Batch of 2 targets.
Target 1
Amino acid sequence: MGVQDTGCLRNVPAGYGLIRELNGSCRYFPDNQFVSANFRMKEFNPSGVRPYGVMRKLVNQLQVMRNALGVPIIITSAYRSGSTHASGLAVDIVVPRKSFIQLAQAAYNAGFRRIEVVKRAGTSYSNTMSFGGHVHVDVYDGSGISTSGTIYDCPTCSSRPCYPWYAFGVSGSWWATSQPNTFSQLMANLRADRGNTGYRGC
Ligand SMILES: [Zn+2]
């Protein structure tokens, strides 16, 4: 499974970011260029990391969410060290005009199958996100394969379409991401303001 890294993250030009396209190819975009209808390349680098890059699947699904919500999505964390963020597979987002519950549903509808909902203490998941907190959404395929510098092209979730993703990051670090709830259990926990507000599935 997978083919060797083509090294494109190491070769990102100054002032550019990288997108791993659905066919596995690498494309470099100037920081200010739009990479989808509503998102610029640099929005996937709020930490200012160099070099940086993300998977096209992540960009596409975020744009689907943006279209459905009809209001801006603020990316507070994207490419950085640690967990699936380090492989360009994840973003943390805030939508001040929507509630945590609305965002979790929109993420699921857009195809995300690894979701974590983190509210700020003292607020409710029914409240809008203007109170703080974030939602982590993630296109990691759940394969458990973690060798840095390799392209993986087939997720182990057989119901999901194949897409290439690239292990930029830290071996094994993504096990901590999301709890094995069903999506309906996640939504029930959010509505009841209970803990355990992650989801991972196919
Ligand atoms: Zn995150």
Note: Residues 3-200 form one domain.
Target 2
Amino acid sequence: MNNQIPLDQVLHGDCLEILPHIPSGSVDLIFADPPYNLQLRRELWRTELSKVVGVDHEWDRFSSLSEYDEFTRKWLAECQRCLKDSGTIWVIGSYHNIFRIGSILQDLGYWILNDVIWIKHNPLPNLRGTRFCNAHETIIWAKKCDNDKKYTFHYQALKAGNEDRQMRSDWYFPICSGSERETRDGRTAHPTQKPEGVLRRIISASSNPGDVVMDPFCGTGTTAAVAKALNRRYITMDKEEAYVGLAEKRLAAVSPELMNEPLSILESRRPKVPFINIIESGLLLPGATLRLKSKQKVLAIIHGDATISALGHRGSIHKVGALCLGTPTCNGWINWYYTDEASGDEMLIDCLRSVRF
Ligand SMILES: C[S@@+](CC[C@H](N)C(=O)[O-])C[C@H]1O[C@@H](n2cnc3c(N)ncnc32)[C@H](O)[C@@H]1O
């Protein structure tokens, strides 16, 4: 492989051999679902005598924790090199490996932004009844390093899709099942296929259409499939040939979704905040004055009901603004200034919406 970016392909091979060929600073976002090093010692059976499809594959076996750490350090360092300065990485894991991964991420200089808990509606019960039912996985989200580069996070779009409430770090998704689960010869094709919903939230929250999304542990190709559906480019790889074929087949059936408007447009649209919220939350008090941008001499007084009055007119910030300016309409938010008490500066009242809402 030369050092071209292998976009929109499923590569076959060990990520430790493939990643060094990916050009530095070429990737916007990484999602990694690495081996968990589950160290399963015995087979698990359900009460109705069906065997649990656990992870006892060769790709999940390491001779010791230090061998696992060494492997983790190598692929995480390569991923860091591949990321753009503004890039971020998400790594999913369970209690078996996530603490080791978190510590290695920090040792390498990544800057942790969040740890998200994926809470499973329908977890596998603890069949031996010896521990709590393990009902969640942890997903660490980190920046390439502690730099000043702005990373992508579609805060407003997430909030808008969450009934106008901030999206939290506890996410509820069922485990991958039913028609979403990839099968081969009528059997589950991969033991750890992740739900598309989790990837959809991650990719749409932290990348833009056209961005390059990389997954060094492709499996059934969930990351690549969601990236393609969301109009992103992908780079992915797996060392098991059978999974490469499975992912290629899955990807061939995915069509990019028609998006009426990209997230960036949605994000730039402010939620509608009525002026009364500014008064109710004490950001501006009744009796305070506002000045017009282009007519500094016009002073308006704020009333307790969130109307303002100036030059004998009384009404909304928009209506009084238009009457004072002699224009048919006026966006009061970007025409009226208040005096910031702390700095004494004249500030647009529009700034108050972005501070609090
Ligand atoms: C936890 S699974 C990923 C599952 C995937 N997220 C999905 O939704 O299907 C990890 C995958 O990484 C692959 N793998 C393990 N070690 C690897 C390595 N060194 N290089 C590339 N792939 C590897 C395994 O074959 C397995 O398919």
Note: The chain has two domains: 9-268, 275-356.
